[in-house]
Structure formats: C-alpha cells, structure tokens
Amino acid sequence: MMKKRMIRGLLSLSLVGLALTGCGTPAKDQTGGATGTAPAAGGSASKGEPTQLVISTWGFSDDFFKKEVYAPFEKEHNVKIVLDTGNNADRLNKVRQGTSNVDLIYLSDYYAEQGIEAGLFEKIDRDRIPNLKDIYDIAKAPLGEDYGPAYTIGQLGIIYNPKTAGKDITSWSDLWNPSLVKKLTIPNITSTSGPMMLDAASLVAGSTSFNEDQAIAKMKELNKGVVKYYGQTSEFVNMFAQGEIAAGPIMEMYVKDIKAAVPDAKFVTPSEGGYAIMNTVNIVKGSKNKRLAEDFINWHLSKEVQEKSAKAKVDSPVNTTLQLTGDDTKGITYGADTVKKLRKLDMKFVNQHLKAWIDRWNKEVAQ
C-alpha cells in the first residue's frame, strides 16, 4: 500500500514538472518560428488552420506562379495564398482607398514610389530577408532601405523587323530616321515606359542631363512617324505581328511573344543604354502577416525560384548566384554586365513632374 502511494506521488511530481517545462516554451509566431527569430531554413510550419496571405499582383503566368512559387511556400509555412489581380494603377488605388485586405503587393517601381509617398507600405526588416545579400545592388533597395526590393529587372530596348524597317537599328536616335516614318509605335506617356521614352528623346536631343523642353520638342518631331502610341504590350505585339509597324521600344520580356509571330524580329539594347524596368514587392501597412510576408519575399529572391522563373522566361533574375547558359539566357535581361549598363530613372523625380509631362505631351506631342 505504501509502495503504491509512493508511485502515485512520483507520477504527480513528473506531471507537474512537464507542465512547468511547457510554460517555459517560447511562443510560436504565425510562421512557426520562435517569436523574435527567423524560422529555421527548411523548417515546417505548425499544423492547423492555414494562415491566409493575400498577394496583390498582375496575374500573368498564373499557372507557373501557382505551381512553382505559391504551392511550395504554402506547404512549407501552412499558408493559403489568395490573389488580388489587376493592373498597377487599379491595385494601388484599392490599397489607397482601403478597400482590400492585401498583405503583399507587387508593383513596378514607378507605382511603388507613389505608394511610398502616400504612406501605404510597412518598413521591412532586412535581417529577416537573408537572400537580399545575393541580389544585384541596384535591386536591393531601389526606392530606399526601408522598402521592398526589386525581384526582377528587365530592360526597355528596341525591337524591329529587318525586312520592313529599311535599316539596322542600333541606337535610340535611329527611331527618328525617315525610313521609319509611319512604321513606329511608341509607349504612351501614361504607361510605365512612357517617361523612359521621354528621357531617351532628351538624350537624342543632345542633353547630358534631362531637359524637358528639348525632350518634348524631339518627341513632337517623332510624332509624324508614329502609327499609334500604345498603352498595353498586347497592342504592340498585335501591330507588329500584322505588319502595321516595323519597330518600337518594348520590354525585353515580351520578345518571345513577338518572335513567335515574327521569327526574324531583332531586339537590341541601344548604344546609349536600355532602361531598367524594376518590379518591386512591398508589405502593405497594417498587414497582420508582416513576418510571413517577409518570409515570402525571401523565398521569391531565392536561387530556386529565380532560376525557375528565368528558365521559364517569366522574369529576368536578380539573384547573382545562379548561372545560366545558352538558350536559357535568351529573351531575358541577364548578367551583371548587362544590368550595370542599364539607365535608371529617379522615380521620385518622375512622379513629381509626371502631371506636367502628361499635359505637355497631350497638347504638344500626340496631336
């Protein structure tokens, strides 16, 4: 009898000990890691009802992103990713108006700067995004250290049809050649690449720094050669495929679509330099999933995701640790030397002057 009571007493002490040990266990955050620390690489998230992470993005290459980017992250972190898709302006306006529950938003740097100036984004914790160390310097903080990186860098260059252009094109100035009259399409000033075209016009006019008056005058001179000012890349692709145009500025990532219709088409980086087009990712202010969003940014910058995106011709990579060769390098903006030569606009300057440029463009250029 005495022996049985001793055993019961020892069991009770053991259970109390286990309970006290449990009280000392660090609390788990939403990603499954201990509070205040980054989750261990390769660690699995705690099970249970998945956390919902709302991502605002364009919606292109949807099948690729769902399979190669979203699904592995969902499995690793016990997350359900919900997409809010649309163009830059519409999606940014939703966040500005407070009509969405977005955690993470993908925008071109041009629109991301507007979001920063409106105070719409959280400041990121760079210590929680270790893959930042492996990306191009230009991509690490394109809009300031407090805000998100560029996960891809493309370039605006020129594509032309050698059979109908009437000449080889090697520079921005070639667009003003008489042989291209009524054979051109140019991005509208309100598009992402519109201000880049205005800067190129200033270069062609002979200005070493941007000169608004000379740029507008040069664009007015070019107007007679323009079939249409395009707002969407699909317009460019259709006009080129149907032979309505012979040349025009376009983002390199769309070259594959044009070559599918016109195999002889040539894309060139103009001698003065192509323009860097950077798509950024930021965390929306007030997100309850900030740490999880930072984990997702880190995942998107990883060698694994960047390599798959590059080989699928979905995005040009910014991660410098991957090595591409042969056909894998075609149709994307790839390599440190290429990226280093790209011209980059000051997006704060662009946003400060854009309204005036649009007014002058509409009155003096696109008549």
Describe this structure in words.
- Helices cover 40% and strands 15% of the residues.
- With 367 residues, it is α/β, with parallel strands linked by helices.
- Strands 1, 2, 3, 4, 7, 8 and 9 form a seven-stranded mixed sheet that branches. It has a two-stranded parallel sheet with strand order 5-6.
- It starts with a helix and ends with a helix.
Features of this protein?
seven-stranded mixed beta sheet; 367 residues; two-stranded parallel ribbon; globular; alpha/beta
Q: Distance N terminus to C terminus?
A: 105 Å
Major sheet summary line: 7 strands, mixed
What is the succession of H and E elements? HEHEHEHHEHEHHEHEHEEHHHH
Spatial shape = globular
Question: How would the blueprint of this fold be written?
Answer:
Layout (H helix, E strand, L loop, with lengths): L1 H22 L27 E7 L4 H16 L1 E7 L2 H10 L6 E5 H9 L19 H4 L9 E11 L1 H4 L18 E4 L6 H11 L7 H11 L3 E5 L2 H9 L5 E5 L3 H7 L4 E3 L6 E9 L6 H11 L2 H9 L24 H5 L6 H19 L2
Parallel strand pairs: 1-2, 1-3, 5-6
Antiparallel strand pairs: 3-9, 4-7, 4-8, 4-9
Helix pairs in contact: 4-14, 7-8, 8-14
